[in-house]
Amino acid sequence: MSKTPNYDSAVKKILDQLVPGERVCVLTGEKWLMTDEEIGWYKKFNVPPSKYSPLTRMCLVNSNFVLFDVWYNYHPETGKPIVSVVHPASGVKVLPDNEWFQKDFSEYGREVELKRAFFEQFYDLVRTVPVPAYYNYVAPENSIAFISLGDQDSYFVIACKSKRTFYGSNAFDVEDTAEVMFSKNVQNSYNVIRSEKIYNCLFVREAYECTDSSFLFDCRNCEHCFGATNKRHAKYLWFNEQLSKEEWEKRRAQVDLSSSSVRIEYEKKFADLVNASVWPENFNLNTDKNAGEYVTDASDIVHGYNVCPGSQSVHYVNHATPVASRDSYICAGIYGSSDCYYGLGFGMCSNVKYSLCVNTNGIDLEYCNSCYDCEHCFACVGLRRKKFCLFNKQYSEEEYWRLVDELKCAMLERGEYGEFPLMNFSSQYWKNSGSVQLYGATEEECRKMGARIFEPGEAGAEGPDANAELIDMSTINDRVSTEELVGRVFFDSVAKRRFSYLKQELELYEKLRLAPPRLHPTRRIQQLYSEMNMPIFMKIPCQKCGKEIVVAKNNNYPVREIYCRSCYLKYLEENN
Question: What's the domain of life for this entry (predicted)?
């Protein structure tokens, strides 16, 4: 028996009349083709069709996605600084996790106003109820960590399980490493992207089981290589030139990466080498053709991006990891969930729609934010172990469903129900959000999607000593010691942000014989993202055989030599 009979009847009329065809996004003007498959998702979730293009929807969802930004926010009662991934200029309040989990935010419950615009009411609630500052799943030890899965002695890591690691994102079982993303089992290394089983390596992309090497792209089982691309089981390569052990060691001894100018020189050489290398049509493994990018051992994936093994029937999703999900559409940051629709932060959830951020162990939630172990809730923020709540107010089961039916009917009539909140709801600095960094949205497009445009340092985001003397990095010598850098405050003119070095971080660079990076940490991680392929896809011919293939765009390497899978494998066989 339907719990919302009036809404079900109203939306059925809309869905029964829905036909495929060209549509125009009401926010951006982008045209797209609404297919039978897309209509099938609307019918599955019993929702009206979106007025926004799929790209716009992914931008809206990912405007809330935490990529890599850390700020000072402030305790709403005491004003005490709190390090958080939430920008204070967003207006979203935060509390330390241990304090947040001790509170019951049902005290913020309020009556729903059926005749008032829903998103106005929801915005007020989202800006009133605090959210956790860290969102840690496992309490980190002696670390500055966010969305932690168990970090020890690590600093500024997000969604990681690490030890003695600095500036990492989505990295697991990583130790004594800095600047690492989407990687596993990495030790004693630096600047690593999408790699596994890496030891004592610098500047590594798409590598597996490599040791004692630097500047690797698409390599497997390589050791003692300095500049290698598309290689398998190689030793003593120097920018793809085969050397003897003695000659390789002689050349390696002559390159001192503890010099900043030498480091920059070889980073540029490596970028040129990668740009000239052969790229596969995608980096998927054991999955459907045209599933997306970075998809592994999954089935029925469409426009997937970073999808983990075991996932099934997830379309237009990104970061569906580390636990498999299924039967979900237009999602970001989803793990261990099923039957979820149009949102982000689905953790072990089922039948959740329009999730605004990190809902965990939820069942049948709509338009909720930061709710844990809740069922049958609508437009709630910060609740734990609750049922039948609307705008954080508790109702009986009967009264809840009556009000939800009335509210969804009113929202449907006003054209509100079925859409995700605009970018003004985001807790992130717009320029560094997933909308811009992953999907390439411009400032003009972000404004059309409702973004609040502010500068990174607004509202005290740079901290209580923001007026400290700032040192221009261009005045620093080519070679510097730990003593010269530690305790000083530097300014990144591109990021428009100040930063300092951690003593432990500098000690790691000394151990690796590497010049410290001269960018704000956020820019360092952004540069790693820019080297990865994007979740935006296009059709091109294979540059070997001419067959049409679907490939992902890449910011750093827009013009690449890309082969279809069969031509790429043949190329590897011929060149290894």
Answer: Bacteria
Orientation of helix 36-45 relative to helix 5-16, angle to 10°: 170
Location of structure tokens 């670390």: 143
Structure tokens, 55: 């790209």
Instruction: Give the tens place of pLDDT for each residue, 317-344.
Output: 999 999 999 999 999 999 999 999 999 9
Angle at 332 between CA 119 and CA 366, to 5 degrees: 40
25-32 long-range Cβ contacts below 8 angstroms, 24+ apart: 25/51, 25/52, 25/53, 25/56, 26/51, 26/52, 27/51, 27/52, 27/56, 27/448, 27/449, 28/52, 28/53, 28/55, 28/56, 28/445, 28/448, 28/449, 30/55, 30/56
The confidence score (pLDDT) of residue 320 equals 96
Name the nearest CA neighbour of 178 among 170, 187, 190, 188. Answer: 190
Torsional class of 494: left (φ above 0), alpha (ψ -120 to 50), beta (otherwise) = alpha
At 30-62, the pLDDT tens digits run: 999 999 999 999 999 999 999 999 999 999 999
Q: What is the pLDDT of residues 559-568, one digit of tens each?
A: 999 999 999 9
Beta-carbon contacts of 51 under 8 Å, excluding residues fewer than 6 positions away, are 23, 25, 26, 27, 415, 419
482 phi/psi in degrees, rounded to 5: -60, -40
Q: Please enumerate in sequence order all residues whose Cβ is within 8 A of that of 266, keeping only pairs 6 or more positions apart, or say none.
A: 214, 215, 227, 255, 257
Q: What is the mean pLDDT of residues 282-306?
A: 93
**pLDDT band of 467, cuts 50, 70, 90:** low
- Helices vs strands, H then E, count in the chain: 14, 31
pTM of the model: 0.95
pLDDT of residue 466: 58
15-51: b (≥16 Cβ within 10 Å) or e:
eeebeeeebebebbeeeeebeeebeebbeebebbbbe
Residues 439-457: tens digit of each pLDDT: 999 999 999 999 999 999 9
Peptide bond before 88: cis, by omega within 30 degrees of 0?
no
369-391 burial, b if ≥16 CB within 10 A, otherwise e? bbbbebbbbbbbbbbbebbbbbb
The pLDDT confidence band at residue 289, using thresholds 50, 70 and 90, is confident
In the chain, where the domains are located: 1-137+289-459, 144-280, 460-530, 539-575
- What six digits make up the tokens of 571? 């190329």
Q: Which residues are CB-neighbours of 63 under 8 A, at least 6 positions away?
A: 423, 425, 426, 428, 430, 433, 434, 435, 446, 449, 451
